[in-house]
């Protein structure tokens, strides 16, 4: 049986992966979605204890999930969304995962495009330097712009109410300064040719991680001899893993894993 570890990004609870876990289980996979450090077991508890997540950065998050991966007898598949996609790439580059799927991943070091939409999506955190040491959530309107812009207002608001949580600001600040620091935590071993296969996806309507950002990340792997694929989801925004069209994204992931020989009952 192939093991899968799901990693969420900023502002979405780990429990939002449950439909994916069930869907993958039906295909024979064993999947889990561990919480981030300091995240509580329920959305209300995480909202009420936001400070518990404060101060965790990319390296701490990567180490946290590396420990999770090391508990398996064989290397699992890692599927991450947004900053979870960045962490998935780091773990794959470290040869800790058998394969990885980075869904609309936060920019790794070397990604140069910085669209206005991406700046606006990150501004609620980056606009105040003190947020580096805090955990901060998005307002309903901020969520609508960053996550739900390709949805109806009703669906966007419902997702915000159901799944939005505060998250540490530190990873955003680290990603924002990555290209100015030689040893940035957002650095990934993109030249590693011994790693497992990687799929990077992009939603063409994504504001938080615009298409050009994900496409640029894919281009950074040109020196690697390992499989590095790219898939675009037309008209999809950053909510694509939790909105009404999540199953299409999940099925694309399943089909790609099958193509790589990583079937659920392998």
C-alpha geometry: globular
How much of the residues is beta strand, in percent? Answer: 5-15%
Mean pLDDT: 96
Structure class: alpha/beta
Low-confidence stretches: none
Our Rg estimate from Cα atoms comes to 17 Å
Distance N terminus to C terminus? 5 Å
Quaternary structure: single chain
Total strand count, please? 8
Strand order within the widest beta sheet: 2-1-3-4-7-8
The proportion of residues forming helix, as a percent range, comes to 25-40%
Order of helices and strands: EHEHHEHEHEHHEHEHEH
Q: Please describe the biggest sheet, giving its number of strands, its sense, and whether it closes into a barrel.
A: 6 strands, parallel
Give me the number of helical elements: 10
Q: Keywords, please?
A:
266 residues; alpha/beta; 6-stranded parallel beta sheet; two-stranded antiparallel sheet; 10 helices; 36% helix
């Amino acid at each position: 049986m192939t093991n899968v570890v799901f990693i969420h990004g900023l502002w979405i609870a780990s429990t939002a992966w449950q439909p994916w876990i069930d869907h993958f289980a039906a295909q024979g996979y064993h999947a889990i979605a561990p919480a981030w450090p300091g995240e509580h077991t329920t959305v209300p508890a995480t909202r009420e204890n936001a400070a518990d997540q404060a101060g965790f950065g990319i390296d701490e998050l990567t180490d946290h999930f590396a420990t999770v991966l090391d508990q398996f007898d064989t290397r699992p598949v890692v599927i991450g969304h947004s900053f979870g996609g960045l962490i998935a790439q780091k773990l794959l580059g470290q040869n800790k995962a058998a394969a990885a799927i980075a869904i609309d991943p936060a920019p790794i070091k070397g990604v140069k495009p910085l669209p206005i939409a991406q700046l606006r999506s990150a501004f609620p955190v980056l606009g105040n330097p003190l947020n580096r040491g805090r955990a901060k959530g998005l307002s309903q309107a901020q969520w609508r712009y960053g996550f739900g812009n390709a949805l109806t207002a009703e669906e966007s608001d419902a997702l915000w109410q159901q799944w939005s949580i505060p998250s540490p600001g530190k990873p955003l600040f680290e990603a924002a300064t990555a290209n100015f620091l030689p040893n940035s935590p957002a650095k990934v071993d993109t030249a590693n040719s011994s790693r497992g296969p990687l799929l990077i996806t992009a939603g063409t309507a994504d504001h938080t991680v615009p298409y050009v950002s994900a496409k640029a990340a894919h281009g950074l792997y040109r020196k690697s001899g390992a499989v590095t694929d790219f898939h675009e989801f037309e008209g999809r925004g950053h909510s694509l893993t939790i909105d009404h069209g999540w199953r299409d994204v999940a099925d694309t992931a399943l089909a790609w894993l099958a193509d790589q020989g990583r079937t659920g009952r392998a």
